[in-house]
# Entry
Amino acid sequence: MERLHWPGGGNRVPTSICSQPCRPGERKKLVKGIPCCWHCERCDGYQYQQDEFHCKVCRLSERPNENHTGCIPIPIVKLEWSSPWAVVPVFIAIVGIIATLFVVVTFVRYNDTPIVKASGRELSYVLLTGIFLCYATTFLMIAEPDLGTCSLRRVFLGLGMSISYAALLTKTNRIYRIFEQGKKSVSAPRFISPASQLVITFSLISLQLLGVCIWFIVDPSHSIIDYEDQRTTDPRFARGVLKCDISDLSLICLLGYSMLLMVTCTVYAIKTRGVPETFNEAKPIGFTMYTTCIVWLAFIPIFFGTSQSAEK
# Structure
């Protein structure tokens, strides 16, 4: 025996089998033409070892365990109130709500003074209501998605901006018609009374509400767990995202009416930029609309650019 020479130069007797047993999480891949020999192949990705010869992919809501011998549920995540992505917007929203309420209280206190009357107090209250809703919607966007939260998101996400832009559009349209009519005759244009302005504003707002009602009928609101958004290459980092069933396209369509009001209001703001200095309401509205357009142009690429973010 000591004079025998084995392959590799060793003195140890070789194992008389062609394949070693596979480890957990590995399947046997048989060698063609040699049925008793195999290669051990790791069940990788989202696969687990179904039996000694096969790997199988876990269900969409599951991922393989550490040694790929079975499947376990994928952890569910949502935007937490303690997250910096929530704390900063909530702080800004609280400051905005306090500032808005301060202005409302000031308007109510001096409701019958000439300066409040001259500012168009009826539309100012409508505008402040829209601004308040815009800030308050922040809390709905961070709250845990369920049937009630998702339904309220659909209603109020675009409503606050629609109310604000409808009030501003009615204001700028009134200013434009007054000065255009003044070039032609001394008679006042129609529908410039406070009651008429409110009717026009609420008519514009009702179109937003009508669109939301149709959306509820066509596609009822509900929450979902999205396993595709955070389905990473490494199963260990896979997460299911709890969110409302509102697609990016649906969200843009929801905000589309607000965009239309905003663009129309901007057009009127440009047309009224040459009014006399004493009529000082037009210039702040114009400045507001120009900056709003810039914000919206920045919002769209940022929104779609974060489509793969868990905190979206």
